[in-house]
Design brief:
This protein is of the alpha+beta class. It has nine helices and 21 strands. The structure holds zinc ion.
C-alpha cells in the first residue's frame, strides 16, 4: 500500500520518494511509489496532475489493494523520484472539496437535508440532497455556509478506529473499516473523508450556489467556491454587461425588457402577416398579369394552365404562401414562388380545378436544384432552393407537359 503524504499534509506540493514498480494501466505507462503526494481519483474528487522526475503525470488511479498508480507520459525506471504536483489544480480542488463539507453541513443544520453524494466537476460541483429544499431555505443554508467560511475556522485531520468513530457525531455514517481519517471543520462538521482540504475555512473564499434541480425525490445543488466563484461572477458580469448595453436597461430590468421585446416581436409578426395577406391580393394581380400559358393537356381537364414562376422581392416563407394561395384562388392558375436568403423558401400552389400535383412538382425542383420540402397536391412548401426563376419555369413546363 502506498503511503499517502496528503493524508497528513495536504499542503505538500513537492516530495521525494522511490519508484518501487514500473507497470502499465489501461495501456499507459504507470509507476508505483513508496509514498506520494498525488491524489488519486476517489470520493468525488478528481486526481492531481504534475511531474515525476520531470515526466508529466496525466492520471492517478487507486488500485483495489490501496496502491496508487501514477500514469506517466513516458515510462520511468525504478529508483529515486522527485514529485511535484500542479498546485493550481490541486488548490482549486481543495477549495471546492472543503466548500462541499461546509455547504453539506449547512444544509444538514439549516434544512435537515442530508448529502447523499458529491461530485467535483471540471467547472462546477454538485451535492445531491436526500430531500427537496425550497429556494428560501437554500439561500439560508448558503448564508450559513459563508458565515462559517468568513469566520476562518480551523479544518483539522485526525485518525480514529471504526469503534471510536462510531461514538463520534459524524455527519454521515461510514461503512469503512480499519483506521478512519476524520476531517473536522471546527465546531461545525465532522466527516470521514480521504480527500484534500484547505487548512482554514477562510481559504475557501466564498461558496456560491449557482443552481439546483429536483432529482429522484431529492435535490441536486450546483455550487462554486473560491476562484471558481470569481470566474463565474466574471462571466456573468460580462454576459449581463453586454446585454444591458444592447438593451439600454439596468441589470434588474433585463428580464422584463426581454419579455417586452418578445411580446412586441410576436405582435409585429401578426401585424406583418395581416399586411402581407392584404398586399398579397394586389401583388397576385400583378404576377397573374404576367402569367405564362402552359400546355398541360395530358395532366388536367383544362387544355392549358396559367403558370406564374417568380421570385418577388422581400417576401418571407409566410408571405410567399399567402401570395401563392392568392394566385391559386383563380381558376386555371398555378404558381411557383421563390424567396431569398437566408432560408430560400419555395411555395408551389395550384387552383382547385387544376389536377397538377404541387408536391410532385416541388419534388422535381428540389431533385434538380437542391433544398427540401413537401406538402399536399394543391399546396407544397420547402426551403433551401437556390435557383433562377427562368430555369425553374423551364423545368416545371417540361414536367407538366412530359408526363401522362
Ligand atoms: Zn472531504
Amino acid at each position: 500500500m502506498t503511503d499517502r503524504i496528503y493524508y497528513r499534509d495536504p499542503s505538500a506540493r513537492e516530495f521525494d520518494a522511490t519508484i518501487v514498480a514500473a507497470t502499465t494501466f489501461g495501456g499507459r505507462a504507470a509507476v508505483v511509489l513508496d509514498r506520494t503526494a498525488f491524489y488519486p481519483t476517489s470520493g468525488g474528487q478528481p486526481f492531481d496532475t504534475g511531474l515525476l522526475n520531470g515526466v508529466r503525470v496525466v492520471g492517478v488511479e487507486e488500485a483495489e489493494d490501496g496502491t496508487v498508480l501514477h500514469l506517466v507520459e513516458r515510462p520511468l525506471p525504478p529508483g529515486p523520484a522527485r514529485g511535484a504536483i500542479d498546485w493550481e489544480r490541486r488548490f482549486d480542488h481543495m477549495q471546492q472539496h472543503t466548500g462541499q463539507h461546509v455547504l453539506s453541513a449547512a444544509f444538514d443544520r439549516v434544512c435537515q437535508a442530508a448529502t447523499v453524494s458529491f461530485h467535483l466537476g471540471a467547472d462546477r460541483s454538485t451535492i445531491d440532497l436526500a430531500r427537496e429544499v425550497p429556494p428560501d431555505r437554500i439561500a439560508a443554508a448558503e448564508v450559513e455556509a459563508n458565515r462559517v467560511v468568513w469566520e476562518d475556522r480551523a479544518v483539522t485531520i485526525r485518525f480514529a478506529t471504526a469503534e471510536e468513530a462510531a461514538r463520534l457525531p459524524l455527519r454521515k455514517e461510514t461503512r469503512r473499516e480499519g483506521e478512519l481519517r476524520l476531517v473536522e471543520v471546527q465546531d461545525f462538521d465532522l466527516s470521514a473523508c480521504g480527500g484534500t482540504h484547505v487548512a482554514r475555512t477562510g481559504a475557501i473564499g466564498v461558496i456560491a450556489v449557482t443552481g439546483w434541480e429536483r432529482l429522484r425525490g431529492g435535490l441536486r445543488v450546483e455550487f462554486v467556491c473560491g476562484g471558481r466563484a470569481l470566474a463565474a461572477f466574471r462571466s456573468l458580469r460580462d454576459a449581463v454587461g453586454a446585454s444591458v448595453r444592447v438593451l439600454s436597461v439596468h441589470p434588474f430590468e433585463l428580464a422584463p425588457a426581454i419579455e417586452r421585446m418578445h411580446s412586441d416581436a410576436k405582435e409585429q409578426g401578426r401585424a406583418v402577416k395581416k399586411l402581407q395577406e392584404r398586399l398579397a391580393a394586389h401583388e397576385a394581380d400583378a404576377l397573374v398579369a404576367g402569367a405564362e400559358t402552359v400546355d398541360a393537356t395530358r395532366l388536367t381537364p383544362r387544355a392549358t394552365v396559367k403558370l406564374v414562376v417568380a421570385a418577388p422581392d422581400g417576401w418571407d416563407a409566410g408571405g410567399l404562401k399567402a401570395l401563392a394561395s392568392a394566385i391559386a384562388s383563380r381558376p386555371g392558375h398555378a404558381a411557383v414562388l421563390l424567396g431569398g436568403a437566408p432560408s430560400f423558401p419555395i411555395v408551389v400552389a395550384r387552383a382547385a380545378d387544376v389536377s397538377l400535383d404541387a408536391a410532385a412538382a416541388l419534388g422535381a425542383i428540389t431533385a434538380r436544384f437542391g433544398g427540401k420540402g413537401g406538402g399536399r397536391p394543391d399546396l407544397a412548401q420547402g426551403g433551401g432552393v437556390v435557383a433562377p426563376p427562368d430555369e425553374v419555369a423551364a423545368l416545371v413546363r417540361q414536367e407538366w407537359r412530359g408526363r401522362g
